[in-house]
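Sorry to interrupt, but I need a hand with the structure work. Could you write out one complete protein record for me, on any chain you like? Just paste the record in under my message, thanks.

. . .
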Amino acid sequence: MTGLRLTQNVSSIVTLVIYFAASYNTFAVSLSAMVFLKWTCVLYYLQALPRVGPVVQMIVSIFYDILDVLLVFLISMLAMANSVYTLARHEEGYTDFADAMYTTYKALILVEFEDSSYPRIFNLYLKIIYIITSLLASVVVLNLLIARMSDSYERIQEVARMEERRLRAKIITRYETVMSSTQCSRSEWFPSFLHAQVKKGGNQAKLRPTEWAGVLSEMKGKVDALETKMNTALKDMHAGVEAQNRAAEKRAQELDKKLDAILRAISTPEREESEDISGF
């Protein structure tokens, strides 16, 4: 996004120079490009919003992740455009190479391909070229592109909340660098300390996953819940085993007492009998 902001600043300077040095048509094209870049740069300032910021970051990250796939798609377009332009350079849609690229884009992406206007001698060849390129670009490459974007979405969604806070802090820091010393000394803008209150158990190192968290975050949450459940079950099992051990020890002590009582009861008559015999 920083490169986009730099580009729109350069476009503003170029448009100003063209206004004084070139024709109106050139100035109109430059002004149109500058307006487009200006509107696109609005996304940079929307990064501070909680809901829009992660989406903007996803778009930028996904674009960089799919560059290699886009390169393969571009080569396929160049191959088909150059091949058809060589045969039908005087036909409608192929008057120059830029027009041929645009017509090829519409044929592969928007499925707008008219082969009835071409000479019959090239009709079969153009159909073969279109089939081969559409299988490579429209079927294989586009599905690979969707899969890559899905993987990037899951990966970025894991840190979306953290990225939103980081981007907000980045924008705030950029504005702080242009503030005057008087503005920086205002205590309501720059307090000496911050006191954050959270409920008990809420001060965690990692961010909790939101409703739209990715599949990986959902899997981690399920694994954590299962681990907590297993730990609780193990604690309950351990407590049950300890209770059974205490009950067994108590029963063993009671049996020992009963055995002692039986032994004393058996030994008492023998003593009385031995005393009677000795007295006789």
Summary: Residues 4 and 41 are 7 Å apart (CA to CA). Residues 209-213 have pLDDT under 50 and may be disordered. The first helix runs from residue 2 to 21.
